[in-house]
Structures are given as C-alpha cells and as structure tokens.
Amino acid sequence: MATKFKLVYDKITPSLKKIDAGLDDLPKIAFKAFKEATPIDKGYARNHTKLKRDTIDADYKYASDLNSGSSRQAPSGMLPATEQAIRNELNKIFRK
C-alpha cells in the first residue's frame, strides 16, 4: 500500500517573518520620533541624542527637564510622541 503525502502551504511563516522584520525596525522608528520631538534651541539636545543598540540615549544634563515639558516647543516632552510612533508602527505591523 502506497503512502500519500499532501503538501500544505505554510501561511504562518511568511507572516511571522514580516512581523519580525517590522519589530526589528521599531528602535529606529522610536529614535526618529524622539529626535524629531526634541526641541531645538542651538541643536545640542538633538545632536547628543543617539541610538545605542535598542536604546535611545539622550546624553545631556537637561534631558529630563525637556521631557518634563520645560520647553514651549515640546510642552508634553518627547516620550508621548515616541510612544505614539511606536503604537502606530505596531498597528501597521500587526494589521498586515
């Protein structure tokens, strides 16, 4: 008696690869949003904000003050805009 095998197309693996690729981009997207939300006076804060691995490093003394709304340019700070950018990107990734 012969054994028959049926090949079934794997629909999950391609979706997981797209999700994984999208999640890999999240730190860069968050960094871009954080940096764009950072107020500009002389540019010191933006120039001293770096992405180190998956961490945004705001390497200047007054980063907490700016994030607490000390600037009229960013009265809510930088984190709300960054969080919204992450939410938007996650919605895009998981809707696909």
Brief summary:
The chain is mostly helical and 96 residues long. It is 54% helix and 8% strand. A hairpin with a 2-residue loop joins strand 1 and strand 2.
Describe what this molecule looks like in 3D.
- This protein is mainly alpha-helical.
- It has four helices and two strands, in the order ααββαα.
- The chain has a two-stranded antiparallel ribbon.
- Strand 1 (49-52) and strand 2 (55-58) form a beta hairpin.
- It is elongated.
Topology (SSEs and partners):
Layout: H1 12-37, H2 44-47, E1 49-52, E2 55-58, H3 63-67, H4 79-95
Antiparallel strand pairs: 1-2
Question: What brief labels describe this structure?
Answer:
single chain, mainly alpha, two-stranded antiparallel ribbon, 54% helix, 8% strand
By DSSP, the count of extended strands is 2
Order of helices and strands: HHEEHH
How many helical elements?
Answer: 4
Helix content: 40-55%
Q: Give the overall shape.
A: elongated
Radius of gyration: 21 Å
